[in-house]
Amino acid sequence: MFCPPFRLVVLPNYRKAIIIMAPDRQVVIGVDTHADTHTAAAIDELGRILDVIEIATTAAGYRRLLTWARRLGEFERAGIEGTGSYGAGLARFLYAHAIEVIEVNRPNRQHRRRHGKSDPADAEAAARAVLSGDATAVAKRTDGGVEAVRVLHLARRSAVKAKTQASNQIRDLVLTAPEPVRRELRSLSTIRRVRHAARWRPSPPNDPTSATRAAIRSLAQRWLALHDEAHRLELQLRQLLDELVPTLLSELGVGTDVAAKLVIAAGENPERLRTEGSFAALCGTSPVDASSGKQQRHRLNQGGNRQANNALHVVVLIRASRCPETRAYIARRRAQGKTNREIWRCLKRSLARRFHHHLTHDLAPALT
Known about the structure:
The protein has 14 helices and 9 strands. The chain has helices at about 60-70, 90-95, 110-115, 120-130, 145-175, 180-185, 190-200, 210-245, 245-250, 255-265, 275-280, 305-320, 325-335, 340-365; strands at about 5-10, 20, 25-35, 35-45, 50-55, 75-80, 100-105, 290, 300. The chain is of the alpha/beta class.
């Protein structure tokens, strides 16, 4: 249903009233995203549904949505489902046109069970979540150096995972190989085994021995190719991170992989994390109250970005073995009766506070 914004105005010296559009009305839209189409619903500041539209996931479709929303009134906020997947293109487009983009979670199953499921209903629910304040998380921006870090890190992780899989398969093949092959490779380290097997020139695989040699050689060549690919991607990542977060990289225990995970978690616009407590909650390091009765305690946060949490955990492990200050802190807390889990939680929370300052400082020039 379309409810056009207008007001009736009678001008002096005119016998008839004319209709003037009222652009001062606040309009909020919600978008239900899919791969090929998006469905958007617009509501006003009183929660009245104004219009529903379906657009294609193309630049022309995004321009059509923006023109449609601005025609309805003053359009400054949009709630979008899946800004990191199907809605990424639309979010980038709206950011470029100074529209605030809010990340909206999908409706829960209980709500859908009671009210049904449709794209217009989901879009309307997204708009109402923004209007009511239930959805307040500003979406990450994906139009700068941090997005470049994310895609390169994704490719590197994939290469490292495939390389590990190939290494494990070589190990298992050697374990069950015929004795001549097993005797030749079993005492070698992984890298020496791979380089040795990659130079083989096996005969046609018409028996178990020659077939095993052919399989191991193929896996060894794959391992070497993936090793070179991962190394090349790591160099590209390091170059990007040196420009984006030099202060963060100067910290003890922060290497390329750790810095990439933390930068990806913070996003292109770390100012959306208004306090260091917000960043700690994002990383799953904010303490969760687990008190009951006379027992007053906190437990580890099991939520948040687990990759960022893993990055902080790696830094804690490195500092626990190399940093005298951290080792003294651990000894002092153990003397107070704290468990290792509680000490680790405190250390990760402290690192989240410190790294949040570095991230907002280092990424600030990229935002201006």
